[in-house]
Specification:
Layout (H helix, E strand, L loop, with lengths): L26 E3 L8 E3 L22 E9 L6 E5 L12 E2 L6 E9 L2 E6 L5 H6 L4 E4 L7 E3 H4 L3 E3 L5 E9 L6 E4 L4 E3 L3 E5 L2 E4 L5 H4 L2
Parallel strand pairs: 10-15
Antiparallel strand pairs: 1-11, 2-9, 3-4, 3-8, 4-7, 5-6, 6-7, 10-11, 11-12, 12-13, 14-15
Length: 214
């Protein structure tokens, strides 16, 4: 369980307020804390999510799943900014580690580009207000059909001819297929990924792709 030093317990008052932050809406880079953002192995994104704001880094072995944005209403419901694009994460009874202690999800529903959630440990508006800016952490889910963005960053990209094309510096959202942005500036659609693991990504790309960009 993570330390609760930075946030009060959900039932307690707080004078803490997060600093205002800005974040890119289209680019996931190596500067982000470990966060759950997946893309299908075939490359077509299942959802587009804004890059997460800066939050405390998760404990070892956990990923940032979402961030509580603010209280919603008077009964303890909160508006949550998702980091994960896996809706299964937000099923009732899901449990999250946070800097304030464990939270147990009792209800969740989409609300625009956010989710409205209730937690068993959050009894009213005052407790909900106290959790503004608090990250929700959980262990990774093993799904061979998904590529993990945080694992792609820094990997070496090797084409079908065995040529090292550089390292992944960021993953960019794109309607047709998310794009690997390499440190040399090349953009490689994830649809061309044929395998990944151990810090390496294999791609089979059309001839001339690396001459067209970068």
């Amino acid at each position: 369980m993570a330390s609760a030093a930075a946030w009060p317990t959900p039932s307690g008052p707080s004078s803490w307020r997060p600093a205002r932050r800005t974040a890119s809406t289209s680019r996931w880079s190596s500067t982000a804390e470990p966060a759950e953002r997946t893309v299908p192995a075939g490359g077509r994104p299942s959802a587009q999510r804004a890059s997460p704001p800066q939050t405390p880094p998760p404990p070892d072995g956990l990923l940032e799943i979402a961030v509580i944005a603010k209280a919603h209403g008077l009964t303890g419901e909160v508006s949550v900014r998702p980091v994960s694009n896996n809706a299964d994460r937000f099923e009732p009874s899901a449990r999250f580690d946070t800097p304030a202690g464990e939270l147990t999800l009792t209800a969740a529903r989409p609300h625009g580009d956010r989710w409205l959630m209730r937690f068993a440990e959050v009894a009213g508006r005052e407790a909900a207000v106290a959790l503004a800016g608090c990250p929700l952490w959980a262990a990774p889910v093993d799904d061979p059909a998904e590529l993990w963005v945080h694992e792609l960053i820094g990997s070496v990209v090797v084409d079908q001819h065995g040529v090292d094309r550089g390292r992944v510096a960021a993953v960019r959202d794109n309607p047709a297929s998310d794009l690997l942005e390499l440190d040399a500036g090349h953009l490689v659609p994830l649809a061309f990924v044929t395998g990944s693991g151990a810090g390496r990504i294999d791609v089979d790309v059309p001839d001339g792709l690396f001459d067209l960009n970068g």
